[in-house]
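Please describe the entry underneath.
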Amino acid sequence: MLSRQDRIEKALHAMLPAPEIAPRRLHSAMRYAVLGGGKRVRPLLAYGAGELASAIPERIDFVAAAVEMIHAYSLVHDDMPEMDDDVLRRGRPTVHVEFDEATALLVGDSLQSLAFQMLSGHRLADDPRRQVEMIEMLARASGSRGMAGGQAIDLESTAKMLTVPELEFMHIHKTGALIRASVALGARCGDALTDAQLDQLDHFSKFIGLAFQVVDDVLDADSSTATLGKTAGKDASNNKPTYVSVLGLERARALAEDLRDDALRALDCLPDKGGHLRQLADFIVLRKF
């Protein structure tokens, strides 16, 4: 896993505009937002799926960078006063605090555009129709039918008590859509998997996407700010519905384990039973930050 993390860091360094290029402040802020650490779960999922599909590693680099840029842009915007109003991310001041709010908005806009430039400007698949399908996948996962729509539902749900199915619907969009796209895009950089195996990968990604959010809710309730690198207890202070507020801490932990088991079962029919994706499932559910 460390070798793939090194690979994505090098790819992101190379693909982001250099800080010496005008507009310098915007490019510096983009690099600050993306290169400031992070688990790189979405790129790692893309690499894991791409390896199962016998994809050319250089093709996966562009997909992995694109999904991380979309993720980073979402964090920049989520942290702003109009959204979650947070001042700490990955142990550092958030982008709007380190720079300013207008620059933070432009950082998010620019990272989203750059992500689609990565997918459209490089050959990712032998069949051009498949590459167009991949671009559409990321667009759908990022927009109102995916991540942005999930954030809208989250904002509307403040101070409300949601049911578990309502929470799942929100997080299938807010968190799960980009995780699902990361796996699907990585797999489509190669052509070694059957349609049935791609379907199983999709089942895996849906389960592990929900597990990721459940664990996030548990950590927000049960960890310190120093451990998380962001403000702990933010969901409770903002009166946001979470798996912990609905189920309680222990039941939420049990749900995360059940979702991991479901995700691992979905990998059983794949080459090497999913290979590195199995390790990533454990990392997602067992992580401490």
Remarks:
- The two ends are 17 Å apart (CA to CA).
- Residues 195-222 form the longest helix (28 residues).
